What does this fold into?
Amino acid sequence: MERQDPYQPHGLALTLETIGAWLLALIWILPLAYAVWTAFHPPEFSTRFVLDAPLTLDNFRRALDAAPFARYALNTFLLVTTILAGQLILCTLAAYGFARYDFPGSGLLFALVLAQLMIMPDVLIVENYRTMSRLGLVDTIPAMALPYMASAFGIFLLRQTFKTVPVELDDAARVEGASALQILWRIYIPLAKPVYLAYALVSVSHHWNNFLWPLIITNSVEARPLTVGLQIFASTDQGIDWSIICAATLLSAAPLIIGFLLFQRQFVQSFMRAGIR
Amino acid sequence: MKRFSLAIQGWLLILPALSVLMVFTHWPALATFIDSFYSTPKGRRPSRFVGLSNYEQMLSDPVFWKAAINNLIFVAGTVPLSIALALIMALWVNDKLKGRTALRMAFFTPTILPMIAVANIWLFFFTPQYGLLEQITGLFGAPSWPWLGSDKTALFCVIIVAVWKEAGFFMIFYLAALQQISPTLGEAASLEGASRWTFFRRVQWPLLMPTTLFILINAMINGFRLVDHVFVLTHGGPDNSSTLLLYYIYEVGFKYWDTAYAATLTTVLLATLALIAAIQYGILERRVHYR
Amino acid sequence: MTQDFTPHRRQVLGGLGALAAGTALGTPALAQGASEISFFYPVAVGGPITKLIDGFAEGFQKDNPGLAVKPIYAGSYQDTIVKALTAHKSGTPPVTSVLLSTDMFTLIDEEAIVPFDDFIKTDDDKAWLKSFYPAFMENSQTGGKTWGIPFQRSTIVLYWNKEAFKEAGLDPEKPPQTWDEMTAFAQKLTKRDANGNVTQWGVQIPSSGFPYWLFQGLTTPAGAVLMNPAGTEVYFDKPEVTTALQYWIDLATKHKVHPPGIVEWGTTPKDFFERKVAMIWTTTGNLTNVRNNAKFPFGVAMLPAQKRRGSPTGGGNFYIFKKAKRAEQEAAFKFIKWITTAERAAQWGIDTGYVAVRPDSWDTPAMKKYVADFPQAAVARDQLPVSVAELSTHDNQRVTKALNDALQAALTGTKPAATALKDAQTEATRILKDYK
It folds into this structure.
């Protein structure tokens, strides 16, 4: 695989491109860099960037004092795993159905699924709240998770992937007497692994940061996720205290940032192998 | 008989996902559509059928038109800009630059950070005088300007933050597609003496087309969905100059509690999105089939 | 219509039942007695407040065995009313909640709340109802009934930087008393660098989000009243209102002592700490924040006078929800009465910076000691006799939005003051015609 890309830039072009890329990256990383700076310095340095500013963990202490972050983090973890588990199961089944079964009405059903891409759950809150209270699920993690469990994005993505699997593999397995679910499990899912990983990344980072629906549907510390806990710092009634917001932001985003740092190579590679288009 | 059993199997596979969608998306959306033909129930006055009068109210509502126009500007600003930046980022980190792992990380950070918190950080960047932006422009003696507090720049700031949030996410998709382009194509093109620009325009860009369309759909839809930061940065102000449709729907629904009118606006927004998606999906499916 | 979908729901439950059961950690393990009062509370002031409220809930339970208050922290005021009304519309509202005093008409129109008069029985109850500052009750009563009980209330005051006053050659102990004085002081306090760029503004009145509230700090001294007590009429196009708006505009455009455009509410205290502005208008609720973060001596003053003195009140009231059970409502009433005794109101004011809502709170030993140490805290109290109700009408948020838009249009220079206010008046009259 040691082939030379003839369009890999050299010399001056490479230097210019590197500078451009780093400048852009600098702008992109700025909010995070600012959050790190402000979280670790006293409030009076939240607007002043001098090298001899004293370091402090006080902002983290204030944030941790104000909210049970450990509990919120656990809830968020449970929430995103519940959603992801639901999505993986439901979307896999549906995507397989759409990719490999031709039956009356499948086109219409697929259009119905795609419709969800456009419908913001945020505008359906009142109706969904009513459903949850009829189901007796208000203030539980399943209530936060259920509306997102069937994801049109996921079904779409997996259907595209499954369609690229040669039908011959299917037929061969069927001849050997494998059932539809066995074929799905043995052939399709292993082949789509990179897509699953890529999708998981997108899903987790999206639901980790979802706010309005969890706020409305949960009441107690036992159910609330990090974003809702974060909100108490972001409200501007008394003016904005950037120090504590930044500390809280880092606390709540830390698991994601660390996770991405650790697995970024796998993620990018899986995206590449996934061939998402 | 076999055909019939296959159809049943297909249905059974789709049923679980579809039931969830029905209960939590289609049913509430349908209820919203129906609500748009009724008046808002207010205490003693129950809701009654009013036909199209909510839609008439909408057509004569200047804030709706303002929000609609702003939203078009917002889409016109965010979609091409974030796609172009995503492509440039992907082309860059696809080359063997120094520290490209770090670059990928940097471009991807907006996706991981919660928008509510990040919007507060951007608020600081845009703050006149001591905000980060003016600390930098101030070095050059530029005069101060109320970036978020002026009707001339507020929407612009809201667009910038959205582009920042989106571009890195889309980059990942382009990067994946670029990596799939066979290296032999590059070798062949260089043998024919094609310039890098020609190679991009004639080979890479056409091959990226399906990805571009996929991103385009998502970017357009996000252009109507992405409003979290408006709550923090401008509250739609000054004088509605940065109001977007979904933000206005939130205001009508959860501040004015005019649920029928909110349902009307929602219906119009959903219809617009459905139209965009239907057109684009038609194109996308055809492209994918042709390959 | 709903019936048709029941089978689907069953299937969903069947399919996901196991999953739901596996993750149903969220269900609170609290006794579901009729005596538990769910209490939505807007945490809009940061962390330590939740501990105070938890403390109150525990204290109440100790004093009233068998009754339990369960505080539910719901974010900002806006988040809280969204949560409360969404729950109300689905049939399961909280028993009581603290919401903005200006939400009274909205809550009445939604038939979400019950008046307190239903619970007033004894002489003690009657005396309690009369124990609050009349300025706070203006936003709590309408149509001869009391719908809200003042709890965390505030008003607008002027904060000034004494160091900046000294540098400008002003007496650091003398805040501006009139509009003319404020303009004159602000002119001396505005500093420019060699390029003519302003490095310190004289005065700043925030105008993002809810400019109407701060605007009332101008209209009241100008002698204008913005609405009738029934909440069915507004008077935005009166000449006094235009005068007030023109003064605000002139501060920025004519005198050039106030930042141009819309000034962000959230960054205003920080602007003050950063010495980018020498005088700010903001809520008394910022007192503790300013005390902790200002690195210079500061003063707190009543808003300057024009024809008279005056400021609007603001902040939150207790409400009792209609769909709660009678026994729960009674218990909530008991809790509200318990938490607003003179001593507790005083302690709450000291701990949070809100204005203690009863005159007799200020005679308690704890409050006397606090005021002796920190005299700035008493300014809000002294301003209360001249304070007026915050703008509140039927369809409140829509009417205030009409005014907010007009104010922002005038402040950014897109419309002249009189035109903008006339437009707002037309729009508000149109909205309110259904309530006549």
Notes: Residues 1-34 of chain C have pLDDT under 50 and may be disordered. Chain C touches chain A through 51 residues (CB under 8 Å). The first helix of chain C runs from residue 6 to 23.
